[in-house]
Design goal:
The protein contains eight helices and no strands. It is mainly alpha-helical. The chain folds into two domains: 1-61; 65-222, no CATH class. The N and C termini lie far apart (37 Å).
């Protein structure tokens, strides 16, 4: 295997592994040692350093070394990223998984918007984005990195349920009883026009930016 790809695998393992370690087994001892503010600072620094390593290794790895899945792959990828960005758009507010003072109150409320689809809309947005890049089969570096990010998001979502059960108790159990880990696609049509408008705007803007930033036309812009 190409040395650059070996380094990319190592960088992705470091990024995903450090997230899992600091979010779960190392979290309590780190908070005890560093307090909440220090833990957040160290977590952010380690994550940023690992992500920069992923970026650097990705840039150094071969581009376009796989055969690609053709127009069918681009159509599937384009369709996957739209609901991903709708989920992402709606996950920024009213999300009890985020570390906010209102988390317990939000968890006891009836789920609205994208939380009718899944209680982990942000994680599934990343998972769908990852899948869209895997089905394109454009380069080994893209497949490796997308697979790592998909594992981080979806395994992380499962582990987050366990962590929140321990931290939030009855509030998170109530939230789990009213929501689904697995997405319910039919509920996408009930998330509200604002989520769809913001998601559609992001979908068009980010896919347009794919050409100047990544050198490859993506989304609907591939055909227009």
């Amino acid at each position: 295997m190409d040395d650059a790809l070996v380094e990319l695998i190592a960088a992705n393992v470091a990024f995903v592994g450090s997230h899992f370690a600091m979010s779960h087994p190392l979290r309590a001892p780190m908070v005890k040692l560093l307090r909440a503010g220090g833990f957040s600072a160290v977590y952010s620094l380690v994550s940023a350093a690992a992500l920069f390593w992923v970026y650097s290794a990705f840039k150094a790895a071969p581009a376009g070394d796989l055969g690609g899945s053709g127009d069918l792959g681009w159509i599937v990828a384009t369709l996957l990223t739209l609901p991903a960005l709708v989920l992402l758009a709606g996950s920024m507010s009213g999300n009890p998984a985020l570390p906010t003072p209102a988390a317990a109150e939000q968890a006891r409320a009836q789920p609205k918007g994208v939380f009718q689809v899944t209680r982990h809309p942000m994680m599934w947005a990343i998972g769908l984005w990852a899948l869209s890049h895997i089905v394109l089969w454009w380069s080994t570096r893209s497949v490796i990195t997308a697979l790592a990010m998909g594992v981080l998001a979806l395994v992380g979502a499962h582990l987050q349920d366990r962590k929140k059960e321990a931290l939030m108790g009855e509030a998170w159990s109530t939230w789990e009883s009213r929501t689904s880990f697995w997405p319910r696609p039919g509920k996408l049509f009930s998330v509200g026009p604002l989520c769809w408008a913001v998601g559609l705007g992001l979908w068009l803007a980010l896919s347009w930016a794919h050409l100047p930033l990544g050198g490859i036309p993506a989304g609907v812009w591939r055909w227009f």
